[in-house]
Amino acid sequence: MAVMLAPNLLMWAAAVIAAAWKLSQLIRVPHDRGLRVVTLCTVLVAVALSAQLAVSIPGLAGMFPSQSPKLLQNVLLTFFFALLIVLLRSALLPNVAVWRSYAEIALASLASFGLMLAFAATSVEWRGASYPETSQHPGVLAFYLIGNLYMSYATARGAWLCRASARQTYSGARQSLTVAALGLTVCLLGTHLPRVLSTTGRLLLHIDPVPGTAHWTPPLLAIGSGLFFLGIGYPGLRTSIIKARLWITMRRHHRQLRPLWAALYQHFPNIALFAPTTPRREAWQLRHMRLRYYRRIIECRDGLVCLSPYLPEPIRPDHSPAHQAQLVHTALTTTRTQAALPSIIAAPATRDTNADTHHLLSLAHEYTQLANTHTSTTAP
């Protein structure tokens, strides 16, 4: 049980993280129809895997009536694949008839109804039995026959749509769709079709034409599912890795700029756009890294402009960074720059970006009026 629980926990954690990520994106862009479908798919998978996890944990499955999490898991996965087919078809054929999408939902509803009938017709002690426990019980065999029959169609259709979409795109999504199609093909040929043949033979002929499916199909299902989710999630994972590397680089540069910024701020405190924080508190500020990074660059530039009149000698383009640093250090340590602080034009009343923008707009408006007046008076 512990061996089966570990992969279930990993898949559940990945599904929950993906669902939370897509929900956060949907909150920011609530009118994106494609994102709505993708978010719904990830939520369905997360709920389905939660039901599977509830069945896998010893002692927890008995808390649910008649092993209902097993039924819930299969119904949710059925609708997940229906929505996935609709999404892939709309991306491949944008002008496809709407009734085909409704036909996919209707087929998933029919399969779910069949699952519920088979579940209800099964005796209580056999409800929710896993596939290796199907044995020869007709109700359990019918339940898994219906489920695997629909999954055979869904994985075959999904693999074809993924491969067709991959052939029509030249972006980075081509490899992702190809890997997803490969994963669905592995699920189809390695799990669902053999289980359909096995359950059909045991249900109708009382013989197993494909022996051992309870033992060798679960690893193939795990491999196929892993490939599928790897292909689907690769673009998002790649983007997340790029963003993480950029965030780490900006944070490192932000920290490296602090000594220069602190020295300039000590002499010219007006360069700070917002109230500065201590180094210890700054180390725990993880959000808005890009904003704080560019703000520090701007503040350093402003400080160097304020310091330029106090340099011991003019800086030439051929001066090395080491020589320029020596001139800056000399100006900061030997010059009483505090005695001649530059005045702040259009200083905002509060440390707020909106207030700063408002004052700059007011200054620009008045300057435009003055410039127009000056132009009209000097015109011949």
Automatic annotation (TrEMBL):
Pfam families: DUF6545. The chain crosses the membrane at residues 6-23, 35-55, 75-93, 105-124, 136-156, 177-196, 216-237. Residues 247-368 form the DUF6545 domain. Coiled coil: none annotated. Keywords: Membrane, Transmembrane, Transmembrane helix. InterPro entries: DUF6545, MAB_1171c-like. This is DUF6545 domain-containing protein. It comes from Actinopolyspora erythraea.
